[in-house]
Amino acid sequence: MNLAPPVLRTMTEADLAAVAALERACFPDAWSMGLLRDMLNNEYDEAWVLECADGTIAGYMNARFFADEGELMRIVIRPDLRGLGYSRKFMEQLEKTAREKGIGALTLEVRRGNTPAISLYKSWDFKEEAVRKRYYRDPTEDAILMWNRQLLGITT
User: What band does 28 get if pLDDT is binned at 50, 70 and 90?
Assistant: First the structure.
């Protein structure tokens, strides 16, 4: 039985409880409801959700755009729905929004051990540029800083 794929849409206040639950299910250092609300109301942040046909949230993404740079803050996919290509929908949205805003460079940080995410980001032309030693906790792990500096075909 094939279910309809989730629909990508802008995140709203009504999504906060579901997104907070998703945070708690996926991260030992989950963002609090207050932080999520602040993110949603921050003029530099944009957030999207993937909504399933039954109204549940399959995942969410937050990105921050300031001046001529963007930063991918979070991509979260429900554990039971990983590996289905839903993160790619978020990456398409990130690139589309960045181009609409005239953003020439995007950055992100990712756990060294998160090889599926690193592969995804590399497929979107992100390059490893630096390491923050022991940046993450629970477990302690390095963060890899990645950049796509040629989003608009301009080297920054």
Answer: confident
